[in-house]
UniProtKB/TrEMBL annotation:
This is CalY family protein. It holds the Pfam family Peptidase_M73. It comes from the Bacteria.
């Protein structure tokens, strides 16, 4: 009986070894995808260059009913599409004069804004400007004919600010 028990143990051991050794016989393979690159794009608006630009419109020695019309090229100089807004603010001069001036902004013959220069705040101009695309805006600023003697000798320095964000930014109201 000892002999049968030993043979049984040897058979069980061989079976266990066979199962274990058999698990090392499976074929395997591996592939690698190396050097995957992730890069952020750039969002850059220019009028016509990025950052601070020189004045594009200047008028002096104005009288009531005078106006000036000037084009400004807005450029997408980044790699991402954007939407943008324009605002005006007085940086120097007289509030009285700043508050009386009228402005009409058009793009490709379509009126974008028509109102007081002082009321030009966060006006959406475009909602999808592709990389490398330029847009020409036409600004017509007018000194109303209703302006009286109180405006003689007054003036104002105006800054136009163009803010851009990704076209997919849901945080901007259209």
């Amino acid at each position: 009986m000892k002999k049968k028990a030993i043979i049984s143990l040897v058979l069980v051991a061989m079976l266990a070894f066979g199962i274990g050794a058999g698990s090392f016989a499976w074929f395997t393979s591996q592939a690698t995808s190396a050097d995957n690159v992730f890069e952020a794009g750039t969002l850059k608006i220019g009028v016509p260059n990025e950052g601070e630009n020189t004045a594009f419109i200047t008028a002096s020695n104005w009288a009531p009913n005078d106006s000036i019309t000037q084009d400004l090229v807005v450029k997408n100089i980044g790699s991402l599409a954007y939407k943008y807004k324009v605002s005006a603010s007085k940086t120097a001069g007289d509030d009285l004069f700043y508050n009386v001036l009228d402005v009409v902004i058009t793009k490709g013959g379509t009126e974008i804004y028509n109102g007081k220069l002082s009321g030009l705040t966060d006006k959406v101009v475009s909602t999808d400007v592709a990389s490398g695309v330029d847009e020409t805006l036409t600004f017509k600023v007018a000194f109303p004919s209703t302006a009286g003697n109180a405006y003689q000798g007054l003036g104002a320095t105006i800054k136009f600010v163009f803010d851009a964000t990704q076209t997919t930014n849901p945080g901007w109201a259209e």
